[in-house]
Design a protein that fits this description.
With 461 residues, this protein is an alpha+beta fold. Helix content is 21%, strand content 22%. The longest helix has 16 residues.
Amino acid sequence: MIKEFRLPDLGEGLTESEILSWKVDVGDTVSLNQVIAEVETAKAVVELPSPFAGVIKELHEQPGSVVEVGKPLVSFEVPDDAGTPPSGPAGRMPAGLGERGAETQKREPNLVGYGAVVEGSGRPARRPRTFSVAPLVESAGTGIPLVEPAETNPAETKPVHAATADRPRSTPPVRKLAKDLHLDLTQVPGSGPGGLITREDVLGFSRDHDEPDAVRPGAPVVSGTRLGERETRTPIKGVRKYTAAAMVKSAFTAPHATEFLTVDVTPSLDLLAKLKGGRDFAGLKLTPLTLAAKAVLVALRRNPALNSHWDEERQEIVTYNYVNLGIAAATPRGLTVPNIKDADTMQLPQLAQALTALAETARAGKTTPAELSGGTISITNIGVFGIDAGTPILNPGEAAILGLGAVRTLPWEYRGEVALRQVITLSLSFDHRLVDGEQGSRFLADVGAILAEPGMVLTMV
């Protein structure tokens, strides 16, 4: 019996995913819940488990292809009496496949948009839990260098499969280059494994078949040289595409205002040095971000407007009574902002542990889409790049974002004299629909006061 598996909605109503790699090939025998592919959504890299136990008959797409939700991915040959697990609501993969996948109830994987149900039951399956995210290069939120991504070579793509045998093997950037150069890929010999057509193959073919003093009509020209020889073009997709759209929407929907405050944080650094020797902080990563995060949480109690959301549809201001603190992170796939849930309920050791865990999770490539959504206010640590200040753009849906600059040793007025002190510049961007200038200023002043003299916390709680 042939079973077809279609791309499910992997969460957040995403409409498409890119096939990064296949973990199986035609003819392979797979078990239930075995990882068969790695796909990239707009928010995360997801390992896709097999919904069937059987033999791979056909892979409908090759790595680099962007597939719409609901389109066929894999065809399996399975025993006629094989039971299969359901997909969840709206076509999502079911939760706990690893624990419950061995159930042998007869179920069919559903088409996208319909939650599969157990025979005789009207309850849809639960939401997914099994995701993985590409490792971060470095975290702008923690300043901790993380795992470097392994270099990938498009020439290492798996051999062509039946569904794509009727077209030349290449990657999307190579196909785009050939299109820009008005080349027919079927005429280009491939030098890669299995006949894969590489970028060099396309450029070489173009040079060998062009007239020396002429340019093909309509071909783009850059300073007298054909496109591809002096330019590199990268398709906008995945996280980069999602982030770009979100940032444009944020920048042109929420009226941004940014304020700056330069603070002597020498007392905070002295406090960190003392805490590192304490029993409660043994083994924890303590940085200026740790104290800045706590300062933000304390300042929000006095200035709740900065922990709010503008509901355009209902024309309401939603003020959150909890804080999901986002930490901006730079990744090879683009900007991500995982957040610490209910950070306002944590004492300093718990907060330090949560920040450490956030970095470790990113390092292990296990950040989930759920950890990337639901933030209420964010911090971006641009200081790890040696930057003093900036005008950060709001994480969409949030009222404020605090930028931490680099800590520098500077001459500073101290007790009526000039002394060398540890100084940082804070940058606060906020949505002026939600936050008045006075509210933003008071919040920033509170954060600065705590970092300048941590004992000020006693006057604010």
